[in-house]
Structure formats: C-alpha cells, structure tokens
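Exercise: predict the fold of this chain.
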Amino acid sequence: MKTAVLTLLSLHLAFWVSCQQNNMQEHSYTNHLIHESSPYLLQHAHNPVNWYPWGEEALELAKKEKKLIIVSIGYAACHWCHVMEKESFEDTTVANLMNKYYISIKVDREERPDVDQVYMDAAQVLTGRGGWPLNVIALPDGRPIFAGTYFTRQQWIKVLKGVQEFYEKNPEKALEQAMQVAAGVHRLNVIPKVTVDTQFDKKTLTTAAQDWVKALDERLGGRRGNIKFPMPKSYRVLLEYAVLNHDQKAQQAVLTTLDNMAAGGIYDHIGGGFARYSTDAYWHVPHFEKMLYDNAQLLALYSDAYRLTGQQRYRQVVEETIAFCNRELRAPEKAYYSSLDADSEGEEGKYYVWSAAEVDSLLGEKSAVFKAYYDIKANGNWEAGKNVLRVVTSIDELANKFGLTREQVQQTIDEGKQLLFTAREQRVRPGLDDKILTSWNGLMLSGLAAAYQATGREADRQSALKLGDFIWQKMWDGHQLFRNYKNGRATISGFLDDYAFVIEGYIDLYQITFDETWLRRATELTGLLDEHFWDEKNGLYRFKSRDDDPLYVDKAVIEDNVIPAGNSAMALNLFKLGHLLDNHDWLARSDSMLAIARGYMAQHAAFYYNWLQLYQYRVVAPFEVAIVGPEYDKLRLQLAGRYLPATLLLGGAEEGTLALLQGKYKPGETYIYVCVNKTCQLPVQEVKAAWQQMVELRK
C-alpha cells in the first residue's frame, strides 16, 4: 500500500514538473500586464518587453530611475497593433533596448480614452497626424517629446536609440521640446468661454447644414474620399434636420449613404453587422474589425430610416445587426462585449471572404444566381481569388436575367446565405475583445430602444431593459460609475462619455416604458457629473473627474467624432431632462454649453453634429407628447412607430410625478396630449388624430 502511494505521489510530481516545464516553454517571459483584465493588454503579457499598465507604479518608477517613458497605445481589434507586436515587441533585441533605457507602458485606448486623447493630441502637435498603434516617448514626468504610429522593427530600433541618445546628450533641449509640446496640446484644448446668446436663428442652422451636405458624395454616400467611415449619429442628426426643414437634398444624401453602406462589403451580408470602415470610396472592402459602438449607433440610424420610409431593407439591417450583436457580442450577463478582430489565423478578413469555388460547392446549381447578386467572381472581386460580398444588382434584374420569379430569386439568396453562414461557423473565428465598456453599452441602450420603437419587437425592449439593469447593478456602486467590467470586476473610474451615454440611454428607456425609475437614475448620474466633472471656469464638463489623478494637460472635448463628444451628449441630455423634469437650471446650462460650441458648429457642422441637433431644438421647439391612461403602452408604440423628429414622449397608466402629466389622467380612458413648451392641444384618443395635430403644428 505504501509503495502504491509513493508511486502515485511520484506520478503526480512528475506530471506537475512536466506542466511547469511546458508552461515555461510556452511563456518564456511574463510582465506586469499579466494581472490586467483587458484582452489587449493580456495579449502583451508574455512579450519580452517589461510592460507595465498605466498607473502610479510605472510613473513613479520612471521618476525614480530617471528613465524616459514609452506609452504604447492600441486596442484588441487593431490590425497594425498586432503586426507591430509580432515584429517588434516579441523580438528580444528590441525588448532589450526598451527594458534597458525606458519604462514601457501599454495602454488599451478603449479602457483609458483619457490617456489616449492627450497623447494623440501630442502626436498631432508633433507630426500633424495620428492613428493606432500610437507610440509616444515621454519624459519621466509624462510630458511627450516624440510620437509616431506604426514602425517596422528596424525603424523602431532606430527611434529607440535616437531618442535615448538625444535625451542623454541634450537634456535641456528635451525639456524644451516637452514644454513646447505640452503648450501646443494646451492650445488645442483651449475653448474660449463666451456670453450666452439665446437668439437662435434658422439661417445659421440651414447654412451650417447645407455646407455639410455639399461635402457629401451624392452618388455613393458618405463624405468624399478614398476611405469612408459610417459616422452614424451624424447622419441621424442630418436626417432629422432634413425632415424638420423639408430639405430633400439633405434627406437624399443620408438615404444614399445608408443604401450604399447596406449594399457594400462594409456590411456583413451573411452574419449581419457592420465593419469599422471602408478602405475605398465604394463601401466595398472594409477594415474587417467589428465594433460595438458602430453597430449600436447604426441600429438607431437604420431604425430612423425605416420609420421614415417604411423600406423593408432598412428593417432587415436592423434585425440582422441585432442578431449579430446578440449572437457574437452579448455576454451571459446580457451586456455587450467590445469588438471582434479583423484577423483570423493571422490574415485580415479571412473569416468573411469567399472564393467562387467555395460558393459553387455549397450552393450547387443555384450558385449562379447567388454569385451574380453578391458580385462573386472566379478571380475574386478583391484580392486574388477572394470575394467580399456586396450587392451589385436587384432581385428584379436577376429574375429577368435567369428567367425566374422574384420569389424564386429571393428564396435562392436566403437559402444561400444560410448555407454560407453554417459553413462559416466552422471557420476559425476572429478574436473577441470580451471587456464590457460602459459608454459603448450606453450607446447600445439607445440603439435597442430605437429598434424597438421602429419594429415593435418586444425582445429588443427586453434586451434594452436587461442591459440598463446590468449597468446599474454592476457598473455603478452608488458613488461612481465605472468604465469597464470583466471577470466580475469593474476597476476603472468612469469618464464623461460613460456617464453621458448611460444617461442618454436611460432617457430613451423611459420613453419606451414610461417607467420613471430610468429618469431617477439619469437624474442621479447627472447630479454626480455636476458635482465631480463640471468646470465652472470653462463652462463645460471635464473628460475625467477632478478626483482622479491628473494627466499632463486637462481636456474638455466638444468635437463630435464617430462617437459623439461627452459634452455635446450631456448638453442634449440636460435639454431633454430639463423639459421632462421641468428643471430650468439644466435648461440654462444646456444653453450656455451650446453658446460655447455654436461658432464651431456653424463652420463645421459635420464634426459638431450633436450641437447642430441641439441648435435645431432651440430653433424649432420639440413636441412633448403625453400619453396617459390604461392603453398608454399600445398607443405609445403606435405613435413611436412613425418617424417623430424632435419629440419627447412621456406618460403612463396614471399621472406619475412629472409636472407635465398633472391633471391629464381620466379614469378608464387613455388620452394623447400634443404639447409644445408645455402648451397642449386638445386631448385626443387616436394616434391618427395626434399625428395630424403634430403635422399642423409643424407647417
């Protein structure tokens, strides 16, 4: 018995030693990123570079050892980030240089947008351009003296040696360079405070919008250029402007953009969802990464287009995009992960492209129709033999060409899509960035709410409500909102956009439920923002709380990009909450913020689109439509199914607590009250009658 036990122990010991040896062989190096939760940081945890995460430990060590700092910033779905890691950061020669002369910090830009923004500004000051990976070299106190994006191995070695030599031989010049860069970044972020002007004229609005439309591609949609980004919220704003101001040219510009995106290769015709951007002017070949923030905002845009036009193609995009998000980005907790990589098996787009032979083998004799519809060619429509699916013809044209009925063609396409989807599921999937970001999930709240309004699918409303509860239960601790969540932990304090987009999402949840819980939560978050983020001197919200560790320069952002600025989102939130809750202080603050941005908006509306939307609301006051009574939910859904630009919905089975609802409840009856600036039309009981009142008021 004793011999058997000893033998068993020996076997266990041998197995343990073998495992340790295998682990050592698998990972020759382990650095400080091993304790992080970000998938992007963990990808670098076994580089020979002695990486640190952004934080006090690395910054204090740089000061103590008087070493320059490398701040290398990227994200999990970034193709060239992976390339530079493989070429340089996995190379021991490069690593030895970095470890000897520098303190190296890796940053996930999606977790730390504050760090990303101030160092991207430095890159703009130093080089006039930016992008990712972003590689910055800074003094031990964090002030940058060099910046660039992707470097080959030899280029990076040259940079490492050159900057270190410059710092050693010319410390005074290095300090002077740092001071000049910091001053340049400060100038970029100076936003002069102006006197509040409450005169909002339509001419300023229309001139800004029409100048914006002139920059758009009339034939292909999007802004003119060889690379095209969806910019979903900007087109949502422009569509609203077009309808409110009867601007057919602006409306057509938006719909042309939506049509070309939905037909192009930027849209995943097999699995749904959009890639991040198109590498050409035709929306054909995408950069294949899929981001939650794009798809969340595109849900809202296509939902609006469907409500306006009734075109089933727009609804199909909405439903397929939700299916993609729920299938591939949804966490078990019912929140949403961040992104999918562009690459699989080390090759960009491999998961998504097809050869003609593959399609022939899957579809057999029906492949000719399918290939004609999606532009699938024997020699490929992209790289050699590879096809990025895009719609290049119509169902009717194919029916005529192949002598089939319209229904037969549609059935062939639908069946073909399912066969390709099933086959694609067997491929090696792109990498998943499974961190949950508060701000992007806030955008998803609004996307799901808009989809529910457009389609009436109860499953979408339930998804939105579960997501809203998750954020409140897991990302909020009663004192602050957190930025990130992974493995049951939320670790980074929230930034302005986290608060702003969740508040916006909660306002939207109220409007699809009339549950005042969401307004109470939005109010609580707004109060915390006012206390910890508001900068009285600038008249704007800071990007990060004054309680958090400062960076080398403060930053307040008003320019809208593919994701709106936190300040513009909050100005709109204050306007909506001010109306819903009768809070005049918030309405006044919204006006004061708009006054700061209106000059920029007038000159560059495409990049200050949220401000244009707010300006529109000050030119044409929004409707406040109250629906009160037992049938409120049915009537609300009927009304919201129509496109309702500049409209706030409120109500419930009874009056609730909102001031505008008081005195409007009639026992056993449901009435709709169409109001503007709290002045209401006669109550009606049918959606058609309420709609007619709204049409008459907007004439």
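Check your answer against the key: Residues 1-27 form one domain.
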